[in-house]
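Quick illustration, no need to memorize.
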Amino acid sequence: MVIDQQPKGSSSAARGSTVILYVSKGPSTSTVPDVTSQDEASARATLEQSGFVVNVQNQDVTDPSQDGIVLDEIPAGNTQAKPGSTVTIVVGRLLPQQ
């Protein structure tokens, strides 16, 4: 898509003269940080500082070491996504002992 030009639109240019077109490369993308194995608060801060919106999905776990830890993220870490897009983190939630 042309986002600018020289000379400006609606102006005249002599036949054979140069017209410069500035073309957009499309929306930019950023690398999604890999936040798996981080605690929820750290993961959220890292993603938000990188320009992403965070969605949290809880997953029941029985291992106490996984409680509050990011088990997965979508899209995966180290992939490209548009700034401002949503990254879903899957956070372990310890099931109460019965």
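The longest strand covers residues 53-61.
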